[in-house]
Amino acid sequence: MSSTRSPSRIVPLTRGSAAAAAVPEAPEPTALLNPTASTTLPSGYSGRFPALNRTLARHLRDATVDGELNVDRLMEAASKYYDQVDEERRGIVRSMQLMSDEAQELTRELREQTASQLQAILDHVKDVILTVDSSGYIESFNPTGERVFGYSQAEIIGRPLAFLLPDLGGGATKIPDRLEQLALKSDDTHVDLAAHETTGRAKSGERFAAELAVSKARVGRKMVYVLCLRDATERKLAEGATRESEARYRLLVENAPEAIVVLDVDSGRFVDCNDHALRFFKMERAQLLSAGAEQISPPFQPDGTPSFGIVRGHIDRALSGETPVFEWVHLDANGKELPCEVRLVGLPSAGRRLVRGSVTDISERKRAEVYAAGERRVLERLASNASLEAALDAITDVVEKLHPGDRCTIRLLDDDGMLRHVVARHLPREFCHAMHEVPVDLRFGSCAAAVYLSRQVIVADISTDPFWEYRREAALRSGLRACWSTPIRASDGSVIGTLAVYLTSPCAPAGRDAELMARMTQLAGIAIERRRAEAALRASEARFRGLFEHVVEGVYQSGADGRLRAANPALVRMLGFASADELMALDTTRHLHLFPEVHAELKERLLRDGEIRHAEYELKRTDGRVITVVENARVVRDGAGAVQGFEGTLWDITERRRAELAVHAEKERAQVTLQSIGDAVITTDSAGVIDYLNPVAEQLTGWSVDEARGQALDAVLRVVNETGQGVAENLVARCLKE
Predict the structure, then answer these.
(1) pTM across the whole model
(2) DSSP H stretches of helix in 258-310
(3) Could you report the per-residue pLDDT of 410-426, keeping only the tens digit for each?
């Protein structure tokens, strides 16, 4: 309501009348201005103000009694209302004052907290923070600046910026102008945030590389420059180390023994390579980088699988962090197959999937594996008693695997001096027929010349070489243009055959070809000698077995425990056993002796002397018959001298002993007869030496038998002719003559 008094707002009232003076009232925000129709007002109210305040209308109604206005009551109600309004206003004022005080306190705390946080940031930030006025003099300097430059704040504040950054200005450009340039903003955020390189000077005088960022700000009523500086020494050193590392890595990659390529998996093309890769694949850099793995691989790998089109997972494993290593056959620019070992490693890249491949040439390793496998096959065939042809065929197979398209053959030198093919699987039949049997001569090919000269013969062009004069047409008709022949030698150095390599184009061997032929001829010599030694051994064994089986003496071998290990048929028959197995099943031969103590004595002599000779003793046969034998035996010892067993022979002399006894008995009977007869009897050998005189002869000659034994007959007995014409002819000579 307006505070200006208006006549229209005054209602004249008298005691007992309905009119009363209107008292102004402060507006109430929630009061309704339109009284209801049922509102009872005092009489005398003109109704000029239909929109009475509801509170005033309520006060008028409360102050009206029986249509008469009670002014005192009305004034009392109005006074109370105004008191209430004043109290509310004072409460609001107090609340607003409290809120203002709290806002000021909060603002002060925020300012203090912000200043504290800002100071903490400035104190602990790792960069040097300086503020410089528009003239280029330092106004503030944080603790990091003290550590970096070595000055305290007191020493540096107020000094020109050039004192710390001597190279920032220079020339015609002054420090403030340079700061202004550095503080200029551009539309490019990267440019605004980019640091500028400069040089700082520490208190010690040492200069160091620094990065500087400058911004311009208003502080109070003046503009200042805020400089953020960082010591870039470590970064420079790190960058230098990185560059050196990159240079070393590049040098290492470029000089690595393996070929290195980087493959973009998505495009399927190489994006980088080292120089060794260019030499390995025989390509220019642009040519190799325009190709991919498929262009440097054959259609099929050695295992028969396609090089591409099947999932192997090597690249996926490399991209997932693994390092797959596998063997692969590549192709160079000339189409030559290159056996390789490939190692894949995934490379980090923001937008591409890159894989680095290290390709190592394993040709020599594969050659060594073929060597080893071939030698193993040869030795396996020798050990399995395969034929010599089978063993030599394994050798030619090694040569032909290492020389695809070439043919290898082995010939042996016969006792009659002719060279004959033993292995020639891949040579044309017509040529083999022409070369099947050739003499050792200079003009019958490389092999015949190699044997004749006892050295390696290399014919690089058969069509012109004189060594092939007599077999040139046969070789050329068969498409053979070169032949390298190497003699195969026995352990004593003698030539026993040749190994030859035939080529379809004129060619001389490389260094590793000569090594291959040397190794294969050595292996062939071992195989040939071994088979010949085995054949000689088998022949010797056959002869020994025949002798062992058919000799009339008994032959045996036994262990150190006395148990028989071998016995020939003569010994089995001698002892009356049905078979050798039955005899060798005996735990000991002690019970075969007629006198067991003899067995112990013989064994003791054997161990003491190492052998026994002509030991005679008796054995019992299985049928109980006793036989007399003579044994010759020796001890068998190992390299350390330990006894391994015994071996010897037994000769059954039972019949001889019986005959000797019979002769002895007969001799005794004859001696008795000679002693008793009346005639003189003299016995001599075929030379006329006296062996015996009977008693009558002793009397006639005057010689005793002991004196006459060993004397010539003529010395003991002189016989003259009956006619008295001299000594008669020697009687013994005459008897032998007649």
Answers:
(1) 0.48
(2) 275-281, 285-289
(3) 999 988 889 988 888 88
